[in-house]
Amino acid sequence: KRSIWAFGILISTAVTSFGGAFQFRNFAYDESSHLNHYNEVFGLKRNSNSTLNLQGGAAVRSRIESEIKHRRPKYSLSLVREISGAIMQYSSAERLDPLFVAAVAAHESKFNPNAVGKFGEIGVMQLRKTTAQWVADQTGMNQKIKREDLKNISKNIELGARYLAMLRDKFKRK
Question: 66, 102, 119, 164 — which has fewest CB within 10 A?
Answer without folding.
Answer: 119
